[in-house]
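Sequence in, structure out.
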Amino acid sequence: MKALFQELFQLLSGLPPEILNVVYTLAVFTALLVIYKFLSRFLSRTSRRLELDPHMENSFRLLLRVVMLFVGLAAAFSVYALPAEWFIGGSALVGAAIGFGSSQTINNVVAGFYVVVSRPFKVKDYVRIGDVEGQVEEISINYTKLYTPSFNILLLPNTQVMNSRIINCTHEGFIKYTFSLGLPHHAPVSNEEIAERCIQPAIEEFYEKYQDRQIRKPEFYFEASTHVGRSFKIRIFIPKGEAKVLYILQPELADIILNRWDAERKSKQ
């Protein structure tokens, strides 16, 4: 092994300085990548062991990425013996870019830190941001990752997050999700009868079936009546971080209510 390192050192010593710098740079960045992977896994294991809040784990991971980025830049300056004035000038340029908003990437980075610090939402919260919604899986340097009702991951630029209206649907350990359910008019059936014979029994059936999942009993409210029909607001409570359960159970609850409504209409005919 010692002979192998000696041969490798002799080989590198014979290379032109330009190629040698490239080799050193690649070696440094490879080492940094390995270190980052190791620290990232260590952070995940430690977070699970200490039961850290997912948002805190995400904050530490974001800080780790920034530190590794600066270490990589410092290593590059050292390898190529770049003057310190370049670093100072680069910092001034970055500051100008942030001030004038001329760099979308830099704006996203700044916005990402703002979201982490101001905490309009945390990792595993269920949110509506503008016209999109989903469960927050990660707040990275450039993007906020949402697990959407289509069972996909949506990458939302952090600048868009900052410039959008945010509704946090997560409180007291539950996703409190409200959806509207429209029912066509049927003359012999009143709103009270719909609530008593369709919605309330459907909620009881649903809750009895799934209360072992630690959900709370859903609630309902009359919303509005138009010439087309009537609408009710249904509020379902799912434990925080269980967006997949929400996406599966919410349509099922709506289906149970509609089936009871269809049966009620047929009984009146």
